[in-house]
Amino acid sequence: MKTLQGALWIVSAPSGGGKTSLVRELVRRMDDIVISISHTTRARRPGEVDGVDYFFVDESTFMQQVDHGDFVEYASVFNHFYGTSHSQISAHLAGGMDVVLDIDWQGAGQIKSLFPHANSIFILPPGLDVLQQRLLGRKQDDARTIIHRMQRARDELSHFAEFDYLIVNDLFERAADDLIAIVRADRLRQARHSIKEQKLLSFLLSKQ
For residue range 176-208, what is the model confidence (pLDDT) as tens digits? Predict the structure, then answer.
């Protein structure tokens, strides 16, 4: 009997694009899928929980993990480091769980080089004005940081062609439905679904 392996999903978007909320909705509404929790050196924001939103570590600890080869990808974003644990991904995939990585386009490229069969999705905002309003609405950054984030967003948006799927996050529910539809369709691919339905296929194809 073949063992069903989980699928790896990369979801990226410019800051304020809504990818984190969409990924959480995906995991809430579907079974056998988890979010890979990244390590970061940035401070916790109000309401964030260590080990749930991120593993919050200091820069010295983070760089030790880099030296030990603990991360499949890491990057510096707005003067803070973010990294994805190799062991966390591998354990979930081996157990048949899909894994979602909520990372930027830099990390996506690193993941793709190590996991060529990973699926990648880019979340587009309906407009730059909407993106700016979302950033302002979070009330987490000063005006200078907002300007910096908008400048970076334009650069990030130029990398959309490196991804397999595009979703426009205009209406949240519709964007969430699109994200779920993509994951469901992937689970029905013959190469994957035939492993899950081995017993049924064996019965259907057996000589009566």
Answer: 999 999 999 999 999 899 999 999 999 899 876
8-187 is classed in which CATH architecture? Answer: 3-Layer(aba) Sandwich (3.40)
Residue 201: CA count within 13 A, CB half-sphere: 10
- The pLDDT of residue 208 is 61
Token pair for residue 54?
């991120």
Overall pTM surpassing 0.90 (yes/no): no
Half-sphere exposure of 190 (CA within 13 A, CB side): 0
What percentage of the chain's residues is helix, strand, coil (to nearest 5)?
Answer: 50, 20, 30
Exposed e or buried b per residue across 11-43, where buried means at least 16 C-beta atoms within 10 angstroms of its C-beta: bbbbbbbbbeebbebbeeeeeebebbbbbbbee
Determine contact, residues 17/124, Cβ cutoff 8 Å. Answer: yes
pLDDT digits (tens, 9 = 90+) for 80-135: 999 989 988 999 999 999 999 988 888 898 899 889 999 999 999 888 888 888 77
Measuring CA to CA, which residue among 6, 5, 10 is closest to residue 164? Answer: 10
